[in-house]
């Protein structure tokens, strides 16, 4: 990965906007249950594609790479509300690529790590030279505001990395899989086909069995981590899981026996669960905090709807603090 760039919508939503099942203080209730304090909500002008464009431009600026050098664009998303065309084609055009291959990838909250694995293989086999991998989600219109257990968890945003050639493996072998038998754990209230047959029904919104997802994640993710660690003895400096909620992250970290020196990403507290965008957003935050550095080896794992998962070791890319203009670049990463 050569660089990372992000976009967070400016509307910051605090816990006070929500209600709780027992009419208790929403901030205290949500902090205790999820660790989340704020999340970003996209505006009417924000789309999956426009947020992806903003993140992609930032990543290109950081890498010092022109759009003409990008030959493939992959957008990981579950919330692009057009069946066709793909968001990636719009992104490729808007950033100024020249006939780049472009496609969307849908794997829920593990979409980014799935897309990263595809990009790494494209570059390593010579099919592509520079691939933009973007996780972009506009989840908030897909939520039921009356669902007090689900709606407060989620936010919107986009994160992008530029994958390019290197003299060493900066993206490790992926460990991935799925369990479609549990697909009902994260789904939507009705199918689009059912809604189109009966327009008097409510449009589909996100539906999630939170306790079931928690139990599955804290059992599965440590197994994925063990598989990845068994294939290498490299020193891991950072752990960046999908930012589902703080309780899941803490439970996974406790059960994996990672050394206490490993920095654990905690962007969920400020951004909520942003699905496929959560890992690149958390990567940016971790780098900005200086808890991890460019070139450090990080373990990233995405997990969620499907139920699907994917994880790999990566070398952390170059970045610019979000407060700095993107006219200059951080020292270039080497992987």
From TrEMBL:
Keyword Protein biosynthesis (UniProt): no
InterPro entries: ACP_syn_III_C (IPR013747), ACP_syn_III_N (IPR013751), FabH (IPR004655), Thiolase-like (IPR016039)
UniProt keywords, alphabetically: Acyltransferase, Cytoplasm, Fatty acid biosynthesis, Fatty acid metabolism, Lipid biosynthesis, Lipid metabolism, Transferase
SUPFAM superfamilies: Thiolase-like
GO annotation terms (biological process): fatty acid biosynthetic process; secondary metabolite biosynthetic process
Pathway(s) the chain acts in: Lipid metabolism
Domain Beta-ketoacyl-[acyl-carrier-protein] synthase III N-terminal: 103-180
Domain called Beta-ketoacyl-[acyl-carrier-protein] synthase III C-terminal: residue spans: 235-315
Protein family (similarity comment): Belongs to the thiolase-like superfamily. FabH family.
Name assigned to this protein: 3-oxoacyl-[acyl-carrier-protein] synthase 3
Species for this entry: Gordonia spumicola
């Amino acid at each position: 990965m050569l660089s990372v760039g992000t976009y967070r919508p400016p509307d910051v939503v605090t816990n006070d906007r929500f209600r709780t099942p027992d009419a208790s203080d929403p901030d205290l209730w949500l902090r205790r249950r999820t660790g989340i304090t704020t999340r970003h909500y996209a505006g009417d002008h924000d789309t999956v594609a426009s947020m992806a464009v903003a993140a992609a431009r930032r990543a290109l600026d950081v890498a010092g790479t022109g759009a003409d050098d990008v030959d493939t664009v992959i957008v990981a998303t579950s919330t692009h509300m057009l069946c066709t065309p793909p968001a990636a084609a719009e992104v490729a055009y808007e950033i100024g690529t020249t006939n780049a291959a472009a496609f969307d990838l849908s794997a829920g909250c593990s979409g980014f790590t799935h897309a990263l694995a595809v990009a790494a293989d494209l570059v390593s086999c010579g099919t592509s030279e520079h691939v933009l991998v973007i996780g972009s989600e506009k989840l908030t219109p897909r939520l039921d505001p009356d669902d007090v257990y689900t709606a407060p968890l989620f936010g919107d945003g986009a994160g992008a990395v530029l994958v390019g050639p290197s003299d060493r493996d900066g993206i490790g072998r992926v460990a991935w899989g799925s369990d479609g038998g549990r697909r009902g754990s994260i789904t939507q209230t009705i199918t689009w086909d059912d809604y189109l047959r009966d327009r008097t029904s409510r449009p589909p919104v996100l539906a999630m069995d939170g306790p079931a997802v928690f139990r599955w994640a804290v059992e599965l993710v440590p197994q994925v981590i063990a598989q990845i660690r068994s294939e290498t003895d490299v020193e891991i400096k950072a752990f960046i899981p999908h930012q589902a909620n703080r309780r899941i992250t803490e439970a996974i970290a406790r059960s994996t026996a990672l050394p206490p020196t490993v920095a654990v990403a905690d962007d969920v507290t400020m951004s909520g669960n942003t699905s496929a965008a959560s890992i690149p957003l958390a990567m940016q935050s971790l780098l900005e905090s200086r808890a991890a550095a460019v070139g450090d080896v990080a373990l990233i794992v995405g997990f969620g709807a499907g139920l699907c998962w994917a994880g790999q070791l990566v070398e952390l890319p170059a970045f610019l603090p979000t407060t700095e203009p993107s006219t200059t670049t951080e020292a270039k990463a080497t992987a």
